[in-house]
Design goal:
single chain; mainly alpha; 0% strand
């Protein structure tokens, strides 16, 4: 994954309302973030497996950040 994709992903996490994360299970959070990334015309679908794995491994961090916002 390139740095632009990582920045976009974390921008989505930081800009999302914290209650959004509290109402979704991990799988739903993953799908929601992936959908937002795929809406970006610059997103390369070949990155989808790597992005999904990355999000899954960072889910505790994502939830922690969401609670702090």
């Amino acid at each position: 994954m390139d740095i632009q994709l990582l920045r976009r992903l974390w921008s989505i996490v930081e800009s999302a309302p914290s209650q959004r994360f509290s109402t979704l299970d991990d799988s739903s959070v993953l799908h929601w973030i992936v959908e937002l990334l795929q809406a970006d015309p610059a997103f390369d679908s070949q990155n989808l497996p790597a992005v999904s794995d990355y999000i899954q491994t960072r889910m505790p961090l994502i939830r922690t950040l969401a609670q702090q916002m």
